[in-house]
Design a protein that fits this description.
alpha+beta; 5-stranded antiparallel β-sheet; 205 residues
Amino acid sequence: MINKKKLFKKIAENLKSRQEGVAMIEFALAAPVLVGLLLSSIDITSYLVAHQRVSRASYTMSNLLTQMDKGLSESQISDMMLALDEVSKPFSISEDGVATMTAVIGKDDGAGGLEYSVAWQRCYGPNNHSNRFGDTGSTVDETDIPASTIVTDGQILVVTEVDYTFTPMLGFLPLDGQIQYEASFRPRRGTIENIVADGSAPNSC
């Protein structure tokens, strides 16, 4: 008669010593996690790069505009706007965003203080523009002037606000939405209070 106890013990020891298929099972369990981490890292990297590019675009545009003098023309502004897509590559502000360039000017209010208004404004990109300064001619509240920035009587502050609609490369993570940055500079060579008309169509907002 077969000793069942010994038989079961022998079978158990045999199974314990056999390792075939264990690695495959472990891989099957780990593969979804590894793939998820890979896809997530691609989307996160794209998201971080988009932030860096949009930030650089706002900085570059304000910097370019404020290097000009009182001869700043519509065609010059149009040429400078092309730099927005160059510095934001592979992301395109001209297709999926909007950049709003606003010149804020300070004026003596006649009572020993200053008042601020929008001297001019230009936009680039198809998205609806939304800025915190209002349209050309609007009064600007002092609290809207960037912190640690002094704008005296007759001075101009150029602020570039960039709003980009981000779409994840793979869409594995819900990162789609708006990326917004702004940068401001004062002109180094003049006030650029007005833009010279030279026959080019203005990029109005």
